[in-house]
Design brief:
The protein is of the alpha+beta class and about 140 residues long. Helix content is about 20%, strand content about 25%. It has two helices and six strands, in the order αβββαβββ. Strands 1, 2, 3, 4, 5 and 6 form a six-stranded antiparallel β-sheet that branches. The longest helix has 17 residues. The termini are far apart.
Length: about 140
């Protein structure tokens, strides 16, 4: 009987990329440069990016336990919501320099520069247009 090696995203620690890796991903995968600031996150690793031409977006490094099909489903759900009601405040996925919605970090055929997380695993990442709002930290529920 085969055992599953699939990990639970709620129990797997988030990625631990440093600012230099986020800056390289921004340049190599998205063809952009700008300031990168870490944001809090429960199970992914997020950065706020502001480019030199004043674009602002979220750069999200997915948890290694998230599988590709789940991330693709999230992307398509956001796109579907936008198509049905463009006024709803839902983040929108933005494309990589090659036109994909998901980029790949780590040494692969798609991304030959190895800037894997500290644990050596590759990560999928997404760039999302941010929604205006406020931090929930210390806010009443």
């Amino acid at each position: 009987m085969a055992t599953s090696t699939r990990r639970d995203p709620l129990e797997t620690p988030p990625p631990r990329f440093g600012l230099p890796a986020a800056e390289v991903a921004l340049r190599e995968i998205y063809g952009l440069s700008g300031s990168v600031t870490p944001l809090d996150s429960e199970r992914d690793q997020n950065f706020h990016v502001r480019t030199h031409d004043d674009q602002s977006f979220l750069l999200k490094f997915s948890n290694q336990a998230d599988d590709l099909s789940a991330l693709e489903m999230q992307t398509e759900a956001m796109r579907h919501i936008k198509a049905q009601d463009p006024e709803l405040p839902v983040m929108q996925p933005l494309r990589t320099a090659t036109g994909a919605y998901l980029g790949v970090m780590g040494a692969t055929d798609l991304f030959p520069v190895d800037i894997s997380a500290d644990d050596g695993h590759r990560r999928l990442l997404r760039r999302d247009r941010r929604c205006r709002g406020h931090r929930a930290f210390r806010s009443p529920l």
